[in-house]
Write a structure and sequence with these properties.
This protein is α/β, with parallel strands linked by helices and 327 residues long. The chain is built from 12 helices and 10 strands. Strands 1, 2, 3, 4, 5, 6, 7, 8, 9 and 10 form a 10-stranded mixed sheet that branches. Strand 1, helix 3 and strand 2 form a beta-alpha-beta unit. The N and C termini lie far apart (78 Å).
Length: 327
């Protein structure tokens, strides 16, 4: 009888232990299979190449493989929605950007998810500043000279963008707001299509990414006046920050990892640690610099969430004040 009671009690204790341990057991064994990294933009683009570069090194740190899964469409909303609705087990991550989590909520009123409520922030992993480009025959050789030139010719100058509601348009509108100038918007289907018109002088200014803009500057076909980061960029140290002329001016495309809502804190910590270790790797730094991306400094999920909240508030203000739409 006593032996039966002992065995019964042992079985009950074991069952209780199994019921109490799933989350901890999952974290201790994580990861034990490949991790899906959703990239909400097309293959071979900057975000995709960044994901593959960083993901390979992170996989080494985690002891598994990060498999990039491109799910483009709707400005990143399709891929972001897939990640938001995935199981919070650490096996589906999202590489988000300024477009998906800062601009998207301001420009699109009917997103199928809430960018704060439906995601777990993990790590800020990179920033890509832009440069202010003008034709080589522009009378302006500095940011200050361009502002003065625009003020003397209100409504006569124009700027190109990669389309309505894009980071390129918002970067220009932020510049217009702070500089107090009136410049007409000409949307293109991508900045690559705008470059020939900028070179020929049909367009007066374009805020383009470093890797696509600087080759034209170094070839002598365009002139760069400044960089959109608050400080000089190590990717183009010869360019002064626009903020030197317009204090506080800043526009960066940030990159960061999210998981679905409810992702356990210990899994968040594991991925955050792997991301920061990968970003410190010299080989990764070199590859990212060639993509025009500055690795983010090591940070916590809380710091990442705070940064995105401030960035989203800034762009929402511009969208509302300048009446910007993606139509």
């Amino acid at each position: 009888m006593q032996r039966h009671q002992f065995l019964h009690g042992l079985a009950a204790a074991f069952a209780a232990l199994c019921l109490a341990a799933p989350a901890t057991g999952l974290a201790q064994g994580y990861p034990n299979k490949p991790i899906r990294l959703v990239v909400p933009f097309p293959a071979a683009g900057a975000t995709d190449l960044f994901a593959r570069t960083l993901g390979q090194k992170m996989g080494e740190k985690l002891g598994t493989t990060l498999v990039v899964d491109n799910k483009p469409g709707a400005g990143g909303a399709i891929g972001s929605d897939i990640a938001a609705k995935a199981a919070p087990d650490g096996y589906t991550l999202l590489l988000a950007t300024t477009s998906t989590h800062s601009i998207g909520p301001a420009i699109t009123s009917r997103l199928p998810y809430d960018t704060v409520r439906d995601f777990t922030p993990i790590a800020h992993v990179g920033d890509a500043p832009s440069i202010m480009l003008v034709p080589v025959n522009s009378p302006a050789k500095t940011v200050r000279e361009w502002i003065d030139y625009a003020k003397k010719n209100p409504g006569k100058l124009n700027y190109a963008s990669s389309g309505n509601g894009t980071i390129v348009q918002l970067t220009a509108e932020l510049f217009k707001a702070q500089a107090g100038v009136f410049v007409t918007h000409i949307p293109y289907r991508g900045t690559a299509l705008a470059i020939p018109d900028l070179i020929s002088g049909k367009v007066d200014v374009l805020f383009d990414s470093l890797p696509t803009g600087m080759p034209h500057v170094r070839d002598g076909r365009l002139r760069a006046l400044g960089v959109t980061s608050l400080k000089r960029s190590p990717l183009a140290p010869e360019l002064p920050p626009i903020a030197d002329t317009l204090p506080g001016y800043e526009s960066n495309t940030w990159f960061g990892f999210y998981g679905p809502k409810g992702l356990p804190a210990d899994l968040v910590a594991r991925v955050n640690k792997a991301a920061n270790e990968a970003l410190a790797d010299p080989e990764v730094k070199d590859k990212l610099s060639r993509l025009g991306i500055e690795p983010a400094t090591a940070g916590t999920p809380e710091q990442f969430a705070k940064m995105v909240a401030a960035d989203a508030a800034k762009w929402k203000k511009i969208v509302v004040e300048r009446k910007i739409t993606n139509d």
